[in-house]
Amino acid sequence: MLEYDVEIKPTKLIKGQGLAKLMAEYNLHALDINLIAAMSKEDEESSLVQVFEMFLISPWYSDIVYVLHHLSPPPLMARNKSRTLKLKAAKFCIMNNALYWKDPSGVLLNCLVEEETKQVTDDFHKGDYGGHLFCKTTANNILRAGYYWPTLFADVYKTVTSCHKCQIFQGRRKLQPLPLKPVEVSAPFQ
Is 99 helix (H, G, I), strand (E, B) or coil? Predict the structure, then answer.
């Protein structure tokens, strides 16, 4: 190790958090995302403009944006809530003034605020993109199109179960007769 001039700094490891911290720092440096900790105090204040204002005032994302900017939870937050918030914020990133959520396969999904979610849900259920599909199918179509918000599945479920056309069809579906079994046809006369 002396040959390569490597310095080892011991870190406190608690249930694998040390490895997660090292991986997060490595990924931030490799991707050049959210490297605000290396900036000076003046740059840090100006970096808060880095994300759109709608994410800063949104109750869904304000704490997450704070964690992404400062790499620590907001002050005076309970210890268990701050740990949960840090784990949740690890799935988000800021690029080009927008907030994105990273799905398990690594695809970045565009985060929507509360005002945009109703329109997107209606478009994917009732609109040109939809077809009055089941709530899980509609939610997966929204995810596949590249949109995300924290209450996605609950909002889609509420919209689908309150859709008048879906409720009417639900009653008729039960009354439809079962399909008849196909009749086997014997070979033609020889």
Answer: strand
CA–CA separation, 123 and 70 (whole Å) = 36
Q: Locate tokens 């924290």: which residue? A: 150
40 plus 93 within the same structural domain: yes
Q: Does 105 lie in the same domain as 119?
A: no
Number of domains in the chain: 2
70 burial level (CB within 10 Å; 0-12, 13-18, 19+)? middle
**By residue range, what is the domain housing residue 127?**
113-175
Do residues 131 and 169 lie in contact, with contact meaning Cβ atoms separated by under 8 Å?
Answer: no
pLDDT above 80 for 152: yes
Does the pTM surpass 0.85? The reply is no
Closest CA to 12 of 22, 3, 4: 22
Q: Tell whether 120 and 105 lie within a shared domain.
A: no
pLDDT of 143 reads 93
Retrieve residue 80's tokens: 């268990």
Same domain? For 57 and 126 the reply is no
Instruction: Report how far residue 116's alpha carbon sits from residue 13's, in angstroms, rounded to the nearest whole number.
Output: 41
pLDDT band at 53 (very low <50, low <70, confident <90, very high): confident
